[in-house]
Amino acid sequence: MTRVFVNGTFDILHLGHIKLLKKAKELGVVCVAIDSDERVRMFKGTYRPINSYEVRKEMLESLRYVDYVVPFD
Hints:
The protein is of the alpha/beta class. The protein is built from three helices and three strands; from the N terminus they run E-H-E-H-H-E. It has a three-stranded parallel β-sheet. Helix 1 links the parallel strand 1 and strand 2. The chain is elongated.
């Protein structure tokens, strides 16, 4: 079984994210590591993330291309 690791902010989910996750799923079991709220602020500024870690996690977990989600700090 191949495990595929994908990392990112996934703050504003868009078609590019979906295509990436779909391709990853074709390769194996998909683990998405999403940046913590603090990490997002550090890289994208004070007003980000728009969606909290918990919201981003739940959105990603609802996608059929994602097997599990973990935090990335």
